[in-house]
Design brief:
- The structure is a homodimer.
- By secondary structure, chain A is an alpha+beta fold.
- Helices cover about 35% and strands about 30% of the residues of chain A.
- Chain A is built from five helices and six strands; from the N terminus they run E-H-H-E-E-H-E-H-E-H-E.
- A five-stranded mixed sheet of chain A has the order 1-2-3-4-5, with helices on both faces.
């Protein structure tokens, strides 16, 4: 399975939303209407350092996606960070090595953007993903907190 | 103790670096030369959605700092997030309620930027901070992974 990662185009948004929903947690969180997702895609583009990436197989099917945001900051001796969000691989392709290709792509983009660190958070319920990230050299050193604004 | 939060100016950078270093983990991580920090401050400004905030007391001393980045994205029904990093309060003022004022400021800025979620990660060694974030209504639902790029 050869998967190529590239920046998403607006025409990819429906496929990305389908991947976000094809997930044990995402199924309950995503919606049917496309309009808010298209607006979010445009907002990401305007933000400049916030990129939606898709993985395409040999026949042009979108089989994976992730979001990467480059964040400059003063801490850690002024290190720029690459933050990864919204990682998904099509359910019929999990365990086929797509994640390895994806994170090689993440690291290449992070280095090209001058980042010294890659960071991500994972819902603690995703026990299999934990082993995957540790196998890539990530350290589970942090606790991730979320607060919805009502 | 009345602390007012505002966007940092370049002249605040030395005080922010001093706060970053005045910390159980930051002490070993920050450096003496100012130049990389000034460059990171300029890079943050160029990124547009990435803000360094300082808390100033009545006599103009910088006693607290945090960084907030507004991140649009497709997941969670196209929710924009506010991500908080590099939270510090001057060591002589910890426990005096500055953190409460700070997070009221975080939430006000996040709402003004159209965010539906505030997120942050905390090194698992900061056991006292964990209780503080939970008292503010944050849920420790995620595991935070980091990987340095060698």
């Amino acid at each position: 399975m050869r998967v190529t990662f590239r920046a998403a185009r607006i025409a990819d948004v429906p496929a990305v939303v389908a991947l976000l929903a094809d997930d044990m947690l995402g199924a309950a969180r995503e919606r049917q209407q496309l309009e808010p997702y298209l607006a979010a895609f445009e907002a990401m583009r305007d933000e400049g350092t916030n990129h939606l990436i898709v993985g395409e197989d040999e026949v042009g099917r979108i089989v994976a996606t992730y979001q990467v945001t480059f964040i400059s900051g003063l801490s850690l001796a002024a290190a720029r960070r690459a933050q990864v969000e919204s990682v998904r691989v099509a359910s019929d392709l999990r365990g086929a090595g797509v994640g390895l290709t994806m994170f090689a792509d993440v690291e290449a983009r992070a280095r090209a953007a001058g980042c010294r660190l890659v960071q991500l958070t994972m819902n603690a319920a995703r026990t299999e993903s934990r082993r995957f990230y540790q196998s890539l050299g990530f350290e589970a050193s942090h606790v991730g907190f979320k607060k919805p604004l009502g």
